[in-house]
Amino acid sequence: MTGAGGPAGGGGVVPPIGDTLVTPRPFDEYCASFGLSPRELLAGPVLDCPAGASDFAATVRGLGGRAVSVDPSYALGREGLARRCKDDLVRVHAWARGQTWRCRVGPDGTWDRIADWRASAEKFLEDLARDRARRGGRYVAAALPQLPFPDGTFRLVVSGFLLFSYADRLDPEFHLAAVRELLRVSHGEVRLHPLNDYLGHPYAQLGALLDRLAAEGVVAEIRPVTSPTLAADNRTLVLSRPR
């Protein structure tokens, strides 16, 4: 699946993103983007879906919390997943370098986040190998809108850079089904980020989605956040269902 490029404001045309990326967004980026505090991360089981190649869940566990990562790419063997991570890092680096008005790129052409993303990918792959050797079950190969967990399994669910981000290929019904599923497996909050597509455009169907969720008793709040990667990704959606 290939996305088209388009204007994003600020002086340029965003290049096509191509196929859906498996990204290793690091722990600090998650905390900033989702507006997370240590207390929230340690309060109960956390689900990251889709998690990609992020070290987020591994870091939460290192802090003493409980966290599970879900992504369809985990169906690949470790070598296949390592190749996918490497290839997608090359692709996202080229994508970032192609839009210097949105991404911070140094004089040598290096995107300022690439070192942190590479370190996150390395930590993820090491933790994945340990977990599979121990059959720990912390990395689950599955995809929205169907997750293999009982109702209310997690206190906090975070879902980033799939919903809204790929609005050019995921239709409104998919978004609704995916959000319903994330709410089903949560007994606390679901947080979604960003509320823009990869071109930087606000998700056009957000109002309609929130109306349908409100009719089902879901409470929604949009919170301001600060993204270390793209300044325009400055809002996170927090959803809950009063018990």
UniProtKB/TrEMBL annotation:
InterPro entries linked: SAM-dependent_MTases_sf
Superkingdom field: Bacteria
UniProt-recorded name of the protein: SAM-dependent methyltransferase
Lineage of producing organism: Bacteria, Bacillati, Actinomycetota, Actinomycetes, Kitasatosporales
